[in-house]
């Protein structure tokens, strides 16, 4: 008998790789049909007030223009907030595109011009004249901190007495960190193509992280029958959180299609990618109190973030400070300041990217105060349990991350004193930080079917935003069925497929992977039943555990020669299928589950120019079992690149006099380019987790970025002796 | 090229006849003067492999080869390319046989979402033809017009280095 190596844990090439490198993969704006119309969005030039008049006459006079849509002539929309709530809605009243004359933020869509070609629509949009009544606006978080209100977030209860512990500590540091607005900027701008079918139903290709979220939103808002709205997202050109909520281009495209009874595409421009969700500007105040030897006595962490006037956006900023280190006196607080801006939105490692930046910089400052190695300080305060929840971790190999990462980086050679490494005109600094992200699992469904052609077809409505879902799910199914991956086809990105949660929070492998695995088990069980019930079956009286599925055959474990081809069991009839609804294992409830990381960074700072380069990074990650080391490594690489951007470049600047973003394009909103990225090494440490899910696998979409900005900032301090407590660390702050 | 626009066209300008070769195929099109090469490819010729990430020459997702040189297709008007030879990502493979760069991108996992990938591959092809980038730092510099928001840069570099090394080993 040949032993088939399980595809789980193999560095399989992406199964969608060929379609992506040949240009065959089609994204939301790349579906068409004869007569497709194109919509161009016109955004508000004021930040607050109301529309007095919209003069669309000149635009409508352009031959080839079909419609100028606004709140005046839009189709009927729901009048209650609930209808606009989606699976990732924040608390409050969701934004309603083209609903009424109110202007809530600069760039808010006020009209959609629909024409035969994108060029005509864009030209005609420039001819629409909008008259506004302007009201005074507020967009500056830092000027309004005293107006902050408690965030509607359920924080872990305070434990011990943080104030007393801080007052009584031998060493106490009190620091404030600032971080700016950042925008997701996936390389594919948001777009929706609404194709009106001959029966009047809608087939929508949408850029989204949740096809069913978009579908139910559209049905609720326009009172449509879910059977007549299908949302697809076979390929998504990056999202990083920007596709977690249905974005306004979807609403507008559907509106125009309903109004005209014709197929319509709305693709946003790059500047319009700055007119919805973003990572909120945040102020964080930390107090750490420690004994003279560095052991934490008390910790207080307050975060104040910006939100919109219509929704209270919350994320997990401060919670991590109550769980990453052992500390008996902790006080966490989280507050919000409403401004005349759009609501923020989850962006890669929402909350943790911010909270760990502050916490891990503060720990570095404490290490300096204690005069011990920053890694030593972390080991000294290592948390074996999650004190926020009073639960043990289902697994936590962070010590191995610290140890292996440090070894690979050469951390032991690091001099304690800042400004002690130099190479010509460059100051060299080494910094490190730890990272943590929750290992979530959500309910998810999947279907598996096997036909006479011997191909295992598995599906779920989830998406692949570049994370490798197609590939990982193919591997999970192939492993469970003992099939080579070439004989497995996984479908996703279609709201008509079995229910899947939003693709976010690093939960897809855990949630959908579990459903895929269970669907395969259920299908195997059906096949086994058929085999067992055959007259004179060699499998009569056996249980599923006593048989083996491999290479498209079912055989007895105790007698492998007793085998039957699966195709014989199905015959020429309809494919045999099984569908399951998977839920998190109740055993998880007794534990806290999280991924962890340790990241080590070398920076080189030009002494005269203040230019910072990240020359070397080692990221050591503990994420349970790695389904595909190749694509998983890529996820971590991407996270590290994001962390470097967050540390040194990314910042959306608003002109508070206008209440408007000023650097809303890729020339002025800087993201890392090839030349900004040096060596990045990724290590996965062994971590066995028998609780988190049957795969033993935690997600990795977020953990790669967590802690990176802190490690860079700490390295900059080590290089220069300067503490910059405001991101991004641009050269002007170092000169 | 043949212009027939008049002021009486009520804002609409006449189309111009342009003939160019795209991926080895001669294409004759009637297009408005304001249509970019990128929109010609994507919206008129159905070649959506070339991507639109910014429409302002800031991201490189639209990179194609025109007469052997890499350019941003969003920054140039289609009517300027009468008689040009255009190569897009769709024109690189020969049947099922991938171009070495395409194969190397897959092997090194040099992409995630795939949206910047056609531009990265075309740009890398242009870089190889230029023959000036050899070291890792030179490749990084010469590829910096092509953004990858997924952050696949180390893998893209590895893929290009591999193809460059293979080219050097191959006998002339």
From TrEMBL, chain A:
GO MF term set: iron ion binding; oxidoreductase activity
InterPro entries: Ald_Oxase/Xan_DH_a/b, Ald_Oxase/Xan_DH_a/b_sf, Ald_Oxase/xanthine_DH-like, AldOxase/xan_DH_MoCoBD1, AldOxase/xan_DH_MoCoBD2, AldOxase/xan_DH_Mopterin-bd_sf
Residues covered by the Aldehyde oxidase/xanthine dehydrogenase a/b hammerhead domain: 22-136
One Pfam entry name: Ald_Xan_dh_C
Chain coiled-coil ranges: none
Name assigned to this protein: Xanthine dehydrogenase YagR molybdenum-binding subunit
Organism in which the protein naturally occurs: Pseudomonas indica
TrEMBL record, chain B:
Name assigned to this protein: Xanthine dehydrogenase YagT iron-sulfur-binding subunit
PROSITE patterns per the UniProt record, alphabetical: 2FE2S_FER_1, 2FE2S_FER_2, ALDEHYDE_DEHYDR_CYS
Organism of provenance: Pseudomonas indica
Pfam families assigned: Fer2, Fer2_2
Gene3D superfamilies in UniProt: 3.10.20.30, [2Fe-2S]-binding domain
Molecular function GO labels: 2 iron, 2 sulfur cluster binding; metal ion binding; oxidoreductase activity, acting on the aldehyde or oxo group of donors
Domain of life, per lineage: Bacteria
Transmembrane segments: none
Keywords, ordered alphabetically: 2Fe-2S, Iron, Iron-sulfur, Metal-binding, Oxidoreductase
Keyword ATP-binding attached: no
Residues in 2Fe-2S ferredoxin-type domain copies: 16-92
UniProt cross-references to InterPro entries, sorted A to Z: 2Fe-2S-bd, 2Fe-2S-bd_dom_sf, 2Fe-2S_ferredoxin-like_sf, 2Fe-2S_ferredoxin-type, 2Fe2S_fd_BS, Ald_DH_CS_CYS, Aldehyde_Oxdr_Iron-Sulfur, Beta-grasp_dom_sf
